[in-house]
């Protein structure tokens, strides 16, 4: 794994605390990983976020994590997912300027729900990973209708015992998503993948290897 750079990037509501795990100089992609709900303790140091970063960085990619507005040392206040979408756009802008290469995205829970919405229409992002994507939360059912028009590589990883997304609910959401798409259900895992993070990392590495390291795909990425 590459060295870690800590810094602040310019966000729309103030400075955003950020960590960059540096990758190989020959890396064809750079990646962004977003953390879960900040009002429930979500930060860049969440174990699922760290595991996703480690898997992507292990593929040689530089990986950026940042704290949403109001989390950690980031400025601003929580905006119920609206302003956080702008935070993600600022992070994507930083990656584009810094590395000038195609981008991959991974997000956990709130980070997945918010990030997928931003990254689907963004042409810089070529593939997206949703970890523990919530389908039922706070008495609401989330359908993610925008995935119907999202023709990018998509991977959803969820636990079979996830309290915010039953297997049936998540399959119903993803059945309507545009291809290409894949799902991985980690047997016995709850929302935070307690004790199951190695399986999560293996699923990420396998998906990346098959979809983003072949010579044919690399030619299409640029």
Give an account of the 3D structure.
With 222 residues, this protein is an alpha/beta fold. It has 6 helices and 10 strands; from the N terminus they run βββαβαβαββββαβαα. α1 (47-58) packs parallel to α5 (197-212). 45% of the residues are buried.
Q: What is the tally of helical segments? A: 6
User: What's the multimeric state?
Assistant: single chain
Decide which structural class fits the backbone: alpha/beta
CATH superfamily: Alpha/Beta hydrolase fold, catalytic domain
The gross shape turns out to be: globular
Helix residue percentage? 25-40%
User: Into how many domains do the coordinates divide?
Assistant: 1
Instruction: Report the β-strand fraction as a percent range.
Output: 15-25%
Biggest sheet architecture: 8 strands, mixed
Mean pLDDT: 94
What topology, given as strand order, has the largest sheet? 1-2-4-3-5-6-9-10
The radius of gyration over CA amounts to 16 Å
CATH topology: Rossmann fold
Give the distance, in angstroms, between the N- and C-terminal Cα atoms: 25 Å
- Low-pLDDT segments, ≥5 res: 215-222
Q: At CATH's second level, what is the architecture?
A: 3-Layer(aba) Sandwich
Number of strands: 10
Question: What would CATH call the class?
Answer: Alpha Beta
H-E string? EEEHEHEHEEEEHEHH
Write a short abstract of this structure.
The chain has 222 residues and is α/β, with parallel strands linked by helices.
Features:
8-stranded mixed sheet; Rossmann fold; disordered C terminus; two-stranded antiparallel sheet; alpha/beta; 222 residues
């Amino acid at each position: 794994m590459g060295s870690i750079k800590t810094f602040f990037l310019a966000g729309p509501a103030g400075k955003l605390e950020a960590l960059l795990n540096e990758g190989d100089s020959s890396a064809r992609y750079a990646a962004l990983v977003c953390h879960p709900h900040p009002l429930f303790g979500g930060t860049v140091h969440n174990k699922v976020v760290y595991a996703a970063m480690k898997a992507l960085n292990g593929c040689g990619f530089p990986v950026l994590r940042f704290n949403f507005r109001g989390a950690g040392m980031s400025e601003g206040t929580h905006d119920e997912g609206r302003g956080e979408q702008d935070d993600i756009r600022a992070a994507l802008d930083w990656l584009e300027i810094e590395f000038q290469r195609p981008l991959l995205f991974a997000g956990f829970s709130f980070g997945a729900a918010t990030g997928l919405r931003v990254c689907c229409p963004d042409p810089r992002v070529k593939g997206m990973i949703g970890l523990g994507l919530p389908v039922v939360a706070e008495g609401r059912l989330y359908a993610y209708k925008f995935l119907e028009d999202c023709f990018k590589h998509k991977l959803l990883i969820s636990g079979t015992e996830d309290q915010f997304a039953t297997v049936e609910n998540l399959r119903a959401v993803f059945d309507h998503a545009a291809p290409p798409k894949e799902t991985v259900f980690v047997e016995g895992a709850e929302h935070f993948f307690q004790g199951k993070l190695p399986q999560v990392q293996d699923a990420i590495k396998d998906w990346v290897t098959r979809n983003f390291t072949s010579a044919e795909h690399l030619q299409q990425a640029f």
